[in-house]
């Protein structure tokens, strides 16, 4: 027992390394796991980030060597992923499943609005160029909140439950979640998906107020609230990751 007290303080945990290969640099996140027997690399398509899991007692040197040895593989993986799309003039972004071209209208009044143009549906942005990306993001979040609040209210009334607060997030791991305290969390990116997908997520989270799990009983409630549950799940499985391509990433 005494030895415990004499142990030197542990070196600070390094959670990220940078690897250079063929003129490119990659940031690799390190995750030590008690259950890991070996070093494993993963490139997540949603966020384009690189994760190296390693044994709890593995060395930083081995981790770096492993990542450097497989830097070519990382590069090839990233190259195959769809390119991120910045919210800038001329870029195309989906809104409720419909592609919109971003058009800068510096002189016009208003902030962001939609309009039909000869090139198709457009998301028009006024003001100065450096603010375009933020304004588009703010607009999409406002629209997401409006659609989600309406959908949650509708499903909650049918299910006979009353969620308290709706919070928008930008998580890559889940589209929605709910807490025991009655809060509902959703990814604002659902506004990019076809409307039935957003509607489904609202129904799914509301159904968790009836069953806080994914039991058959829960799915029964989800299907009752939203008959197209399977179709929406399939859409998210096939296209969900692509929604993370658009706009600025969270810092
Ligand atoms: Zn769920």
3D architecture notes:
The structure is a single chain. With 251 residues, the chain is of the alpha/beta class. 35% of the residues lie in helices and 25% in strands. The protein contains 7 helices and 11 strands. The strands form 3 sheets. The protein has a 4-stranded mixed β-sheet with strand order 1-2-4-3, with helices on one face. A 4-stranded mixed β-sheet has the order 5-6-8-7. It has a 3-stranded mixed β-sheet with strand order 9-11-10, covered by helices on one side. Strand 7 (112-117) and strand 8 (120-125) form a beta hairpin. Helix 4 packs across helix 5 (195-207), helix 5 (195-207) packs across helix 6 and helix 5 (195-207) packs across helix 7. The longest helix is centred in the middle third of the chain and has 28 residues, at 132-159. The chain starts with a helix and ends in a 12-residue tail after the last helix. Residues 1-7 have low confidence and may be disordered. The structure holds zinc ion (ZN). Residues 204, 208, 214 line the site of zinc ion (ZN). Zinc ion is lined by residues 204, 208, 214.
């Amino acid at each position: 027992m005494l030895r415990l007290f004499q142990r030197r303080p542990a070196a600070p945990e390094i959670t990220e390394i940078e690897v250079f290969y063929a003129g490119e640099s990659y940031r690799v996140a390190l995750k030590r796991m008690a259950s890991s027997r070996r070093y494993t690399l993963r490139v997540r398509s949603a966020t384009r980030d690189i994760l190296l899991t390693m044994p709890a007692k593995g060395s930083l040197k081995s981790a770096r060597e492993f990542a450097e040895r497989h830097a070519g593989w990382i590069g090839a993986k990233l190259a195959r992923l769809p390119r991120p799309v910045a919210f800038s003039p001329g870029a195309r972004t989906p809104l409720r499943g419909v592609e919109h071209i971003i058009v800068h209208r510096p002189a016009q009044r208003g902030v962001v609005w939609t309009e039909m143009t000869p090139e198709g549906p457009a998301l028009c942005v006024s003001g100065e160029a450096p603010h375009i990306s933020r304004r588009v993001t703010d607009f999409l979040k406002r629209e997401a909140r409006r659609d989600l609040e309406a959908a949650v209210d509708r499903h909650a009334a049918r299910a006979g439950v009353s969620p308290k607060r709706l919070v928008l997030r930008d998580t890559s791991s889940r589209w929605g979640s709910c807490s025991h305290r009655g809060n509902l969390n959703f990814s604002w990116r659902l506004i990019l998906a076809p409307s039935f997908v957003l509607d489904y997520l609202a129904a799914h989270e509301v159904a968790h107020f009836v069953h806080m799990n994914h039991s058959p009983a829960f799915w029964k409630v989800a299907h009752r609230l939203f008959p197209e549950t399977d179709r929406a799940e399939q859409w998210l499985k096939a296209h969900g990751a692509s929604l993370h391509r658009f706009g600025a990433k969270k810092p």
